[in-house]
Amino acid sequence: MGLLDITERLRAAERAAGRAPGSVTLIAVSKVQPMERVEAVLEAGHRIFGENYVQEAAGKWPALRDRFGPVAVHMIGPLQTKKAKLAVDLFDAIHTLDRPSLAQKLASLAQARGVCPDLFVQVNTGEEPQKAGVLPADLEGFLKDCRALDLSPAGLMCIPPEGEDSSPHFAMLARMAADHGLTGLSMGMSGDFEAAIAHGATHIRVGSAIFGARSYPV
Ligand SMILES: *Cc1c(COP(=O)(O)O)cnc(C)c1O
User: Fold this and answer.
1) Is 216 within the bounds of a domain?
2) What CATH number has the domain bearing residue 136?
3) pLDDT digit string (tens) for 134-168?
4) Is the pLDDT of residue 216 over 80?
5) Where is 29: in which H helix or E strand?
6) Is position 180 within any domain?
7) pLDDT higher than 80, residue 175
8) Is residue 45 situated within a structural domain?
9) pTM of the predicted model, to two decimals?
10) Residue 217: is its pLDDT beyond 60?
């Protein structure tokens, strides 16, 4: 456990998959972690983090960026349209683009600002009714809508169903990305990031294996 251990396992998984060293980006998911754990990972030199809540991130990262310099922060939680403006001001990437209303909002913000965070389209690979994400059957149409709005998603993201083998979901996401000419694959968490790398993940989102268990489940 810990940043060093996870970094070593990440490098080993890259090697095992025949991937170039450094081809997988490690997003350290710091949501609801105590500040001293986040500071320790920053002090160790890590500069790419993930957050689930706009408000929490807005309260935390401006001050940390003042202290530690540039830090990339990725939004990996559900994003309400009314928080999109705050989100584009704060985040370098948004992994949870999942509906036309959010695409429209992000497109108009991008137009006004002239820049846009990197965007990943979340796909509900398990077709779970309670889970966010575009259904696999709707992905093609949604990507067309995004492109019509001048948004160019960098890739796809998924959260496989709890308690299921993640590998078929990773394989499905990789296939869908390839079918649509997308190179980014945001997949793999503490329990399954090595499998995700074997299936081509470019971004893994690892929280508890770096920071320790969260004090309350989210
Ligand atoms: C919390 C969270 C993670 C990190 O989960 P761990 O199991 O702690 O590694 C990754 N992705 C998303 C979308 C999350 O919400």
Assistant:
1) no
2) 3.20.20.10
3) 999 999 999 999 999 999 999 999 999 999 999 99
4) no
5) strand 25-29
6) yes
7) yes
8) yes
9) 0.97
10) no
Ligand 1: centre distance to CA 111 (Å): 31
Q: Please tell me the residue having the least CA distance from ligand 1 atom 6.
A: 207
With a cut of 90, say whether residue 1 has pLDDT above it. no
| 131 Cβ below 6 A of ligand 1 | no
Q: Look up tokens 């108009």; give the residue.
A: 108
CA dihedral 133, 134, 137, 140 (to 10 degrees): -140
148 C-alpha vs ligand 1 centroid, how far in Å? 31
Q: Kindly state if the Cβ of 121 falls inside 6 Å of ligand 1.
A: no
Q: What is the domain range of residue 82? A: 3-211
Strand partners, 75: 51, 94
Q: How many domains does the chain have?
A: 1
pLDDT digits (tens, 9 = 90+) for 86-119: 999 999 999 999 999 999 999 999 999 999 999 9
For residues 53-88, one letter each, b for 16 or more C-beta atoms within 10 angstroms of the residue's C-beta and e for the rest, the string is bbeebbebbeebbeeeeeebbbbbbbbeeebbbebb
Q: Are 193 and 210 in contact (CB under 8 A)?
A: no
184 part of a folded domain = yes
User: Is residue 29 lining ligand 1, measured as CB closer than 6 Å?
Assistant: yes
Distance 131 CA to ligand 1 centre (A): 14
